[in-house]
């Protein structure tokens, strides 16, 4: 495994301290005999990470534990204080991570896919790792984890989205599940081998409905589709094409017209057993058919593009709410813009596109599990000045940690001085 030399540093909240000194009102000298000191904590602890690119984020249901993939330096990071600071998961053994998932019922159970398609799991929050067996074919590009369930090989199910890297070929495309004797099997039934799958998510009510949701594309039918799969029977509950505008997206690796990535967000009351409850939000990025890049609302009656902007490739989506009411976020693939709308049932919702995070592209956005109460949103980006950013209102994003040092030799900020003019 090749990893770039890591540069650590503590980025103190210098501007805050400067403002405290600059704005302080002169006071009379204190009596030395009565002087008392009190400690004051600085807000947050930020780490400089040279060249870091945040390519995926997983937020645990406890609201405090967050895992981050650094796809540039090849590191995995964990926060236990809702992103205010991160620690390096030094025992991670994989190559450059591209996707991470955390179990819905255990903040310590995680899975990572690296750029070679290898899958690694940890049940102790990244202190130790196990590599799952190599897939029989294809390349894993995304991963999802189910809740703890008796009778499973590893105590819970692990699902990976698999693509066939050959242009015009989906033979090896699949949704694979680790099963008995730690062997991989298909979860897709009749559509196995017909699609290159680039995203997979687990139903919020998985223990009851045993359904996962996957997104892929098909060369022969020239369609991008969202597929609802019952893993108990390895059968397709429903396959929904995005809409007519997404009818020319081809398989992964098909030069000039391929599906590059997708992301899936499900409402809290997602119910795959009924037409009205089978709703998903999907962000799509493709290389050739740029008009098809958009955020989609997938349902049985009227699957449709939500018109985020002409040809806007979407790297991530996140949703907080129910089918009828909530807040939908989307991160742009080729820019650092973060979009949001609460008009989730409209055919042409108004998108607020005034927010952006530090960095240049590959914007990953994740709403807090308590967004309805705390309105906190997390974002990660790639490129120069990329960072893990936090917003407390869903509008303004501030780089909090994993801040790209963009080639500098800064290791630590040990001291600073204020010029006489206060500038």
Structural summary, described in words:
A hairpin with a 2-residue loop joins strand 7 and strand 8. The chain contains three helices and 30 strands. Residues 1-25 and 40-46 have low confidence and may be disordered. With 423 residues, it is mostly beta strands. The chain has a four-stranded antiparallel sheet, with no helix packed on it.
In short:
By secondary structure, the protein is mainly β. The chain has helices at residues 14-23, 206-209, 371-374, and strands at 10-11, 46-47, 54-59, 66-70, 75-79, 87-88, 97-103, 106-114, 119-122, 130-131, 139-145, 158-163, 174-178, 184-186, 196-202, 211-218, 223-230, 235-241, 259-265, 280-286, 295-298, 304-305, 314-321, 326-332, 337-341, 352-356, 361-367, 377-382, 388-391, 398-401. Helix content is 4%, strand content 38%.
**Gyration radius, in Å:** 23 Å
Structural class: mainly beta
Total count of strands: 30
Largest sheet properties: 4 strands, antiparallel
Overall pLDDT:
85
C-alpha end-to-end distance:
45 Å
Low-pLDDT stretches are 1-25, 40-46
The rough form would be described as globular
What proportion of the residues form beta strands (DSSP E)? 35-45%
Percentage of residues assigned to helices: under 10%
Strand order of the largest sheet: 3-4-5-6
How many helices? 3
